[in-house]
Amino acid sequence: MMKKFWLLLLSVFIPFLSFSIPQLSPYARVSLITVAPGQELYSSFGHSAIWIKDDSNYIDKIYNYGTFDFDTPGFYSKFVRGKLLYMLSVSRSDYLIYGAEQEQRSVIEQQLNMTSSQKQKLYNFLETNYLPENRYYKYDFFYDNCSSRLRDAFKAALGDSLQFKNIAFKNQSFRQLIDPYLVNKQFQDLGMDLGLGAPADRIATPSQYMFLPDHLMNAIGNATVLSDSGKTAFVAKNNILFKANPPKDGGMIVTPAMVFAILLLIGVFFYFYHLEKKTSKIYDGRNPVSDTWPVWSLVVISLVRHRS
């Protein structure tokens, strides 16, 4: 009987309960945080987050759309193909800076010029996105990631008052945009080229450039916004929250072209060895794999050289 009573009571009062978002004080600060690229493949392109700090309300929140589960089956395969399930997470700013320090990745803060109402709209947007039913999203490496989500959050909160200008646009494809970040990771670069396929060769629009944190930071740095004092620069102040030590020289880099060139030489050697009718268990004319070994090596070498 009591159980039925409590169920009836909940059914009456639940409709009147609503999700409440605190009101930011006039002293609240909103910043775009950009973290430099790291050594791991998943961190090679840098990272972006929004920082909302309001000491009056004891609010210190980093909104991070780049959270994922390392234990996801086929993690790297899904990452390379841009098909991982991501989520919005919220943490304190010192956690983010501590992690960047441990990985030796510089952290740049861009404090933003926003009115109180604009800050509140952005805060409401992010808090609503953080609800359990909203925080997960189907990640897409080019079109829906931790950086492009922030671009869309700013647009949702600021509307037409936010204007991007002087965005570098050189008719570059997505593949061309990510290549500079993989100069010292050429095997990973080759893997991503194969995993991403033809869609990576599409030409990116100026807005789509912002899928990379560096390009989002530059676009925000050149943007304008309508504030209480009229049209003004979107960025009020730049701060370096952590400066990493210069990376050490890793020495000679072994590239896919070098590896396949060696395989080609080995294949050619055994090819002529086979022509002389000498015994060879490695290179056998009846073996279709070994027959095409030199050919595939030439194909891969030509592809790598063409891209570089």
Describe this structure in words.
With 308 residues, the chain is of the alpha+beta class. The chain has two domains: 19-242, endopeptidase domain like (from Nostoc punctiforme) (endopeptidase fold (from Nostoc punctiforme)), CATH 3.90.1720.10; 256-307. Helices cover 39% and strands 19% of the residues. It contains ten helices and ten strands. The strands form two sheets. Strands 6-4-3-2-1-5-10 form a seven-stranded antiparallel beta sheet, with helices on both faces. The protein has a three-stranded antiparallel beta sheet with strand order 7-8-9. α4 packs across α5 (148-158) and α9 (256-275) packs antiparallel against α10 (288-307).
Helix content: 25-40%
Beta content: 15-25%
Tell the overall outline: globular
CATH class placement of the largest domain: Alpha Beta
Number of helices: 10
Largest sheet entry: 7 strands, antiparallel
End-to-end gap: 76 Å
CATH topology of the largest domain: endopeptidase fold (from Nostoc punctiforme)
| Average of the residue pLDDT scores | 79
Q: What's the name of the CATH homologous superfamily of the largest domain?
A: endopeptidase domain like (from Nostoc punctiforme)
Specify Rg, calculated over alpha carbons. Answer: 26 Å
Name the descriptors.
endopeptidase fold (from Nostoc punctiforme); 19% strand; 3-stranded antiparallel β-sheet; 10 helices; 308 residues; single chain; 7-stranded antiparallel β-sheet; 10 strands; alpha+beta
